[in-house]
Every structure is written in C-alpha cells, then in structure tokens.
Amino acid sequence: QVQLVESGGGLVQAGGSLRLACAASGRTFSVYDMDWYRQGPGKDREFVARICATSGTIRYASSVNVRFTISRDNAKNTVYLQMNSLKPRDTAIYYCHTSPGGYWGQGTQVTVSS
Fold it and tell me: CA–CA separation, 78 vs 88, rounded Å?
C-alpha cells in the first residue's frame, strides 16, 4: 500500500509559477515510476509527466513540454512538478500516480487567472 499526498497548488496569474509536491509513504518509493496527471473542468484526466524509477527517463505531454519540469527526491519520498509560464488552460486538479500499483493521491487544485 502506498499513500500519496499532493501539495503546492493555488491561485496564480498567467505567466506565473508553482511547484507541486507529492509525498509518498508506505512501500519503497524508489521502485515506482511516478506520474503527474491533471483533470480540468469538464475534461477527462490527462497525462502530464512521468519520471522513471531506475533509468530516470522523463516524458512530458506536448502541452507542457519546456514549461514544466518533473523531478524526484528518493531520500524524501517525494516527486515534484515545477510549473512555469502557466496559462489559464493549465487550470486543473493535479494528481500524482504510481506505476505499477496504480495508486493516486487526492489531488491539488491549480487555478491560473488571465
């Protein structure tokens, strides 16, 4: 069992930045690939970014590439999402997710005003 708790969301103006964190507890964090997903108002949940457990390989959705950076600190059991140059269309609830296992956090709200 893995528990995930996201934090760092909030209200920011377009062009601003936020840093999300996802703290994990339970089983060994370092073995999991970690993902960020988001769900905007009236939209399906969509993939944002992944950082792999062993290789460190990183992948981004095209909509956030260059603007967002995913990283992890295995000593702190935490994965981060640095979001720069935010746009109103980035408004969503942001969730972290493990693979394998399919654990989800409760999400953190990000609202970007124009």
Answer: 26
